[in-house]
Amino acid sequence: MLTVYGMKSSGNCYKVQLLLEQLGRPYRWVEIDSAAGETRTPQYLAMNPNGKVPLLEVEAGRYLAESNAILCYLAEGSPLLPQDTWQRAQVLQWLFFEQYSHEPYIAVARFICRWLPADHPRRADLPRLHERGAQALAVMERQLAQQPFFAESGYGIADIALFAYTHAAADGGFDLSAYPRINAWLDRVRAQPGFVAQQV
Amino acid sequence: MLTVYGMKSSGNCYKVQLLLEQLGRPYRWVEIDSAAGETRTPQYLAMNPNGKVPLLEVEAGRYLAESNAILCYLAEGSPLLPQDTWQRAQVLQWLFFEQYSHEPYIAVARFICRWLPADHPRRADLPRLHERGAQALAVMERQLAQQPFFAESGYGIADIALFAYTHAAADGGFDLSAYPRINAWLDRVRAQPGFVAQQV
């Protein structure tokens, strides 16, 4: 049985939950509260030396970290990850885009707005996060003018990865009404078989 | 013929150069000066809407962005990327670690120290970049206590991705003498067939 060590409020962890539900794979979820230091205990660091969630335990003692690496591993052989080398490269392009150009702005803005006090000094970062996050959303809007999902091969893990924080971007102060194609795509993702909403 | 749009001083671009040299694949290199705005021209944005280097043109009009996606695409079928699903997942884990937990600190510190003036306000970011970068180096040092290269399968694209900025970490003010296993690994990478040093 697969075990996911994750935190329900984290979009990176929700990616793994959403994929497992859509694949119909049974799994055990162990809730880890990183805000309470549970990713920094000696026991947790022995499983993931980088001290982050999500973490997948595929069998006793075999661990895989990094949400998007977990998506690739679990989706292998399913229609959610194409076999063709070029199509797969496009999926990976969007997964790296998500972790480098999207998540560090859109997820971090959400974290600051939702979980830090109103007078916290990190609020000073918000203008820069909003500027960079808007750039990422503009790249997404442009891609969705070409095709209904991020990969040519159709709905798959690139959409799951990008859905995780885009659907909650308003929590971080982003106004999604300026991105009609993103809104239509969010609805297409929600209409996929096995879709589950994030429980926050 | 493959075309790489890249900037020689960028570690992300050097990754692609190093892999192509090690694979013995012919390619054309088009130098792009992002500091001079060459990644923000309408022509460049038509090729890569995210406005970054490196960019791989695999044939006329077919482009792939994101350095680590390019590594996966080019290494497919070679000994530098294993076929086995679990081993491949481990490689991807390290590629995502590099882009999320390593490059944003170690590459950015190098950029600030080498290319911004001594009185630039972004120098105030350096203590935080050094703290987070040191965490990434500690994770690497720990992994290299287990095995000689980052993936179980031996030398490959996870090493290429992590070498790109680790070998130049001193440029950003990191003291690598505290990481003896990383230093020994850097030497093992330099000893690989087809290795070329970064020309900066």
CATH-assigned fold name of the largest domain in chain A: Glutathione S-transferase Yfyf (Class Pi), Chain A, domain 2
Domain unit count of chain A: 2
- The fraction of residues assigned to DSSP E strands of chain A is 5-15%
Give the low-pLDDT segments of chain A: none
Number of E-type strands of chain A: 4
Mean pLDDT across all residues of chain A, rounded? 97
What does this 3D model show about the protein?
The structure is a homodimer of 200-residue chains. The first copy, chain A, is of the alpha+beta class. Helix content of chain A is 49%, strand content 10%. In chain A, a hairpin with a 2-residue loop joins strand 3 (55-59) and strand 4 (62-65). Chain A is built from 7 helices and 4 strands, in the order βαβαββααααα. Chain A has a 4-stranded mixed beta sheet, with helices on one face. Chain A has 2 domains: 2-75, Glutaredoxin (3-Layer(aba) Sandwich); 85-190, Glutathione S-transferase Yfyf (Class Pi), Chain A, domain 2, CATH 1.20.1050. Chain A has helices at residues 11-23, 42-47, 67-75, 85-115, 126-143, 157-166, 180-190; strands at residues 2-6, 27-31, 55-59, 62-65. The A-B interface holds A 49-50, 52, 58, 62, 64-70, 72-73, 76, 85-86, 88-90, 92-93, 95-97, 99-101, 103-104, 139, 142-143 and B 49-50, 52, 58, 62, 64-70, 72-73, 76, 85-86, 88-90, 92-93, 95-97, 99-101, 103-104, 139, 142-143.
Features:
alpha+beta; Glutathione S-transferase Yfyf (Class Pi), Chain A, domain 2; 4-stranded mixed sheet; 7 helices; 4 strands
Topology:
The structure is a homodimer of 200-residue chains.
Chain A: E1 2-6, H1 11-23, E2 27-31, H2 42-47, E3 55-59, E4 62-65, H3 67-75, H4 85-115, H5 126-143, H6 157-166, H7 180-190
